[in-house]
Amino acid sequence: EAEVAQSPRYKITEKSQAVAFWCDPISGHATLYWYRQILGQGPELLVQFQDESVVDDSQLPKDRFSAERLKGVDSTLKIQPAELGDSAMYLCASSSRLDNEQFFGPGTRLTVL
Amino acid sequence: ILNVEQSPQSLHVQEGDSTNFTCSFPSSNFYALHWYRWETAKSPEALFVMTLNGDEKKKGRISATLNTKEGYSYLYIKGSQPEDSATYLCALLGSNYQLIWGAGTKLIIKP
Description:
The complex is a heterodimer of chains A (113) and B (111).
Chain A: E1 5-7, E2 10-13, E3 19-24, E4 31-37, E5 44-50, E6 53-56, E7 65-68, E8 75-79, E9 88-95, E10 103-104, E11 108-112
Parallel strand pairs in A: 2-11
Antiparallel strand pairs in A: 1-3, 3-8, 4-5, 4-9, 5-6, 7-8, 9-10, 9-11
Chain B: E1 5-7, E2 10-14, E3 19-24, E4 32-38, E5 45-50, E6 56-59, E7 62-67, E8 72-77, E9 86-93, E10 99-101, E11 105-110
Parallel strand pairs in B: 2-11
Antiparallel strand pairs in B: 1-3, 3-8, 4-5, 4-9, 6-7, 7-8, 9-10, 9-11
């Protein structure tokens, strides 16, 4: 069964360091999402791609976060420099259509010390 | 602006008992309502996508109803089992085709 892949699963870093997360969506899924989930809250959308184009990044803290999906397949989310408040679960999801269910990867648990 | 509320925040249920929890929203201005189950150390998994008022979906022991006029959706679990322990998330698909998420209901089944 096709799955969304994410790596790493866990990342511990010190504040002011750079971190990067990778996501490989289900083959053929044009829409890719990056979410941040803080314990006790629902996922918060950071950025949405349609193929290689950014559809919405209004909630992405652009002073330190960047995301790309150069070939419209896999995607990278970067944080530089990391801050203590960035500690969270970062989830990647993909869907075949905008109105379809989203398929999630296992997430990356980021801890910033 | 759509706002999604889920209640209760957490729930302890004895194995074998049935249970239900709620997703409520103030407006019916959305395309669909999604229910997801998120087990610890696993990926969130879609349970149901509901689109119509009066819509009812069922998958095994789990079912869901949607009442857009009253502004709520219920998720029911019949005869709870330990493997049902998870956080259940509700999300609305808004006019911009983005999901607006509730904070979830954490369900713990006691053996």
